[in-house]
């Protein structure tokens, strides 16, 4: 049986382990561990086993070990971790893909009941429908102003009700009602708050960016630099092509209007000197059809009626 270590020995062992992990890894995820149980944390360790290590501990102990390690090794970049060690957080040291490790950690969330005094991380809405509770339990609903009716000997909620809002503390009545209804509204697990990589610290949302997103953002930045450079007539790599094109246009307009020319303008002036293109009919090779002569319509003399002859039928 291994001898039991004293508190001082445990601190020395923890410091040695933390410093070794810092030397072996350049990628660290800082994750919040509020309401995460030991069994759940053990499952996360199993899921990450191979290229990642989860290390929990007191913030003061981690900060002290990091400062001493930075002084000994001269690795001052690791000091950027210290401001991130606030609250109940742990460190995930990894050599794998940061996005994949983050997604793996997110899989191990478990449902949890709403306990009294707990700050709600999300809005809690009680859905309408039959609760299965007997009419003697209507006092809970009346206290919380939830409209109900008695249907077939059980309490039925008429409309959906927002019971708890995000950021509010769970009261005793809300906790008791959710427990009676069998609703576990919250889910908890390790939540990645920040990412450390080779001295740089950034938000985990950066891991969701794709190559297309990066190209789009880069193109937008180049466009803004080019626009600003053109507006203040300051040459930059982004604006230089536009400046050359604009200068060429100005020289070309002068060459077109005058006898002055240069090699890059000769072709344009030659094109402008060409005669107007023939009509489409001539391009097709068909001779334009001669207009057909319009036949003059001869007026036929009107037939003379019998009245014009001066005779009647009986003459």
From TrEMBL:
<dbReference type="GO" id="GO:0000027">
    <property type="term" value="P:ribosomal large subunit assembly"/>
</dbReference>
<dbReference type="InterPro" id="IPR030670">
    <property type="entry name" value="uL10_eukaryotes"/>
</dbReference>
<protein>
    <recommendedName>
        <fullName>60S acidic ribosomal protein P0</fullName>
    </recommendedName>
</protein>
<dbReference type="Pfam" id="PF00466">
    <property type="entry name" value="Ribosomal_L10"/>
</dbReference>
<dbReference type="InterPro" id="IPR050323">
    <property type="entry name" value="Ribosomal_protein_uL10"/>
</dbReference>
<dbReference type="GO" id="GO:0002181">
    <property type="term" value="P:cytoplasmic translation"/>
</dbReference>
<keyword id="KW-0689">Ribosomal protein</keyword>
<dbReference type="GO" id="GO:0022625">
    <property type="term" value="C:cytosolic large ribosomal subunit"/>
</dbReference>
<dbReference type="InterPro" id="IPR043164">
    <property type="entry name" value="Ribosomal_uL10-like_insert_sf"/>
</dbReference>
<comment type="function">
    <text>Ribosomal protein P0 is the functional equivalent of E.coli protein L10.</text>
</comment>
<feature type="domain" description="Large ribosomal subunit protein uL10-like insertion">
    <location>
        <begin position="114"/>
        <end position="183"/>
    </location>
</feature>
<dbReference type="Pfam" id="PF17777">
    <property type="entry name" value="RL10P_insert"/>
</dbReference>
<dbReference type="InterPro" id="IPR043141">
    <property type="entry name" value="Ribosomal_uL10-like_sf"/>
</dbReference>
<dbReference type="GO" id="GO:0003735">
    <property type="term" value="F:structural constituent of ribosome"/>
</dbReference>
<comment type="similarity">
    <text>Belongs to the universal ribosomal protein uL10 family.</text>
</comment>
<feature type="compositionally biased region" description="Low complexity">
    <location>
        <begin position="281"/>
        <end position="293"/>
    </location>
</feature>
<dbReference type="InterPro" id="IPR040637">
    <property type="entry name" value="Ribosomal_uL10-like_insert"/>
</dbReference>
<dbReference type="InterPro" id="IPR001790">
    <property type="entry name" value="Ribosomal_uL10"/>
</dbReference>
<dbReference type="Pfam" id="PF00428">
    <property type="entry name" value="Ribosomal_60s"/>
</dbReference>
<comment type="subunit">
    <text>P0 forms a pentameric complex by interaction with dimers of P1 and P2.</text>
</comment>
<feature type="region of interest" description="Disordered">
    <location>
        <begin position="281"/>
        <end position="315"/>
    </location>
</feature>
<keyword id="KW-0687">Ribonucleoprotein</keyword>
<dbReference type="GO" id="GO:0070180">
    <property type="term" value="F:large ribosomal subunit rRNA binding"/>
</dbReference>
